[in-house]
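$ ./design --mode recover --in tokens.txt
reading tokens...
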């Protein structure tokens, strides 16, 4: 008889243990309980939609949480705030998380909160001969290294059989995007909403948007230092409960949510029409996250971005306890 794998046993047991152990923290809190503070660092992007909705609708307060939101341009900047002990939790894309783990940072994922196939794209200039991925050979392309933008670009080139030697890659920061494309420093660059929307609007009919929805998932995870997660598991669980309520609100009232999220990232609601999908906002811990982290690790090793070796077991980088209290059915990590 075939024995079940360790992860097949360990994850359900850990979920059950979390529910029992955290009961001692008093999951059912009285109205007299003072709000506990928590600081969440986020990128000012669509990916933070559940945080915007939870904040603006008072969903954190309903969980007896006093939340401070730190805003950054990039998720990896939000992650750095956690690493610097300036924030408790961060919303970050899976690629910077992978790099942080490769550098032995003591952080763990508590949930995926956003996963979109319509947010990341390559934005090019038609007058530079870019109208399709096959046109990228011989071009200069800009990206933000160490992020999922770089990973997206490499995958885009690979699936269209464009070798490294056929393109020049230039590292850019988001604030340089528009000027670099306008001046001709680059012929195309990787971008995401809201930057993608703004730059596309600025370039009008000369903008070509190359998106590969079947190739790439723009995934953001909520992470924290293990020390904080171990010390405050019930507080993190209540933060996830607020975000789960926010995700439900987004799915029940998508037009209202689209307007709220657009306002939070400095766009008009109609400017989100092409990329907004209410279903992209949901809490989960599933196999797709593990598979993506494995693939990203192999890519980073091949590129020489991290030390080559065995791909780690990313189950060790996931803390299921908070989500086990709020949405246990969303945990599907058995393999």
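writing sequence...
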């Amino acid at each position: 008889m075939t024995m079940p794998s360790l992860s097949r046993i360990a994850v359900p047991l850990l979920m059950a243990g979390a529910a029992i152990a955290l009961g001692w923290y008093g999951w059912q809190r009285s109205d007299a309980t003072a709000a506990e503070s928590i600081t969440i660092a986020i990128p000012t992007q669509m990916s933070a939609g559940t945080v915007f909705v939870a904040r603006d609708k008072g969903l954190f307060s309903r969980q007896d949480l006093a939340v401070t939101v730190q805003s950054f341009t990039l998720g990896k900047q939000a992650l750095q705030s956690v690493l610097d002990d300036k924030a408790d939790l961060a919303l970050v894309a899976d690629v910077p998380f992978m790099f942080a783990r490769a550098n032995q940072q003591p952080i763990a994922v508590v949930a995926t909160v956003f996963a979109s196939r319509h947010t990341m794209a390559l934005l090019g200039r038609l007058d530079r001969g870019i109208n399709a991925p096959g046109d990228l050979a011989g071009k200069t392309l800009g990206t933000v290294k160490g992020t999922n933008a770089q990973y997206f670009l490499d995958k885009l080139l690979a699936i269209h059989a464009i070798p490294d030697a056929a393109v020049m890659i230039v590292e850019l920061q988001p604030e340089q995007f528009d000027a670099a494309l306008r001046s001709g420093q680059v012929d195309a660059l990787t971008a995401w909403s809201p930057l993608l929307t703004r730059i596309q609007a600025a370039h009008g009919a000369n903008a070509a948007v190359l998106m590969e929805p079947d190739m790439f998932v723009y995934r953001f995870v909520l992470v924290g230092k293990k020390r904080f997660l171990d010390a405050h598991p019930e507080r993190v669980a209540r933060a996830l409960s607020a975000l789960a309520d926010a995700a439900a609100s987004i799915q029940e009232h998508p037009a209202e949510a689209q307007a709220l999220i657009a306002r939070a990232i400095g766009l008009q609601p109609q400017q989100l029409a092409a990329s907004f999908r209410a279903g992209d906002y949901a809490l989960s811990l599933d196999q797709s996250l593990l598979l993506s982290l494995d693939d990203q690790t192999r890519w980073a090793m091949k590129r020489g971005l991290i030390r080559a070796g065995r791909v780690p077991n990313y189950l060790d980088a996931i803390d299921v306890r908070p989500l086990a209290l709020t949405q246990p059915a969303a945990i599907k990590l058995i393999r």
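exit 0
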